Amino acid sequence: MNSRAPENVLIAHGHRLTEPRQRLIAILSQWPSRFSAGELVKAARKAEPPIGRATVFRTLGLLLELGIVERVRGADDSEGYVVARRGDHHHHLVCSSCGRVEDLPLCPVEGRLKELAAERRFQVQGHNLEVYGLCEGCVKADEK
Ligand SMILES: [Zn+2]
Ligand SMILES: [Zn+2]
User: Fold this and answer.
1) Which residues pair with 92 in a beta bridge?
2) Residue 126 alpha carbon to ligand 1 centre in Å
3) Is 0.85 surpassed by the pTM of this model?
4) Homologous superfamily of domain range 6-143
5) Residue 1 has what pLDDT?
6) Ligand 2 centroid distance, CA of 114 (Å)
7) 139 pLDDT exceeds 90?
8) How far is the CA of 142 from the centre of ligand 1 (A)?
């Protein structure tokens, strides 16, 4: 049993794996890129049978809380989400063209940030960092 699978995380935290939740998780797992709540609502509406807007928002909130989905802001500061593939601290490379999100396995700023904060006697509790640009596929498509 894969304990990181969204279905199992839900159950492990005492939540019910209702049929709409299960189907929403299935939709999310197939999502190739960053998505907005609006896009998810649209996809859920097209599902057979459709999943209601309130269920989508409630489930999205729950999945965020459980770390199954994580927030990834767009280059334009728009709100967006992606299915979390890592449980540990990490950052993202976000494609501004197709919305593809790649995980950076290492934190490139941790050490330097600690130094800078220590100089100011600041106690660091965490940080956010998203990197925006064009993914390999979009760069190639651009060159054609
Ligand atoms: Zn791209
Ligand atoms: Zn970091």
Assistant:
1) 103, 130
2) 28
3) no
4) Ferric-uptake regulator, C-terminal dimerisarion domain (3.30.1490.190)
5) 58
6) 11
7) yes
8) 10
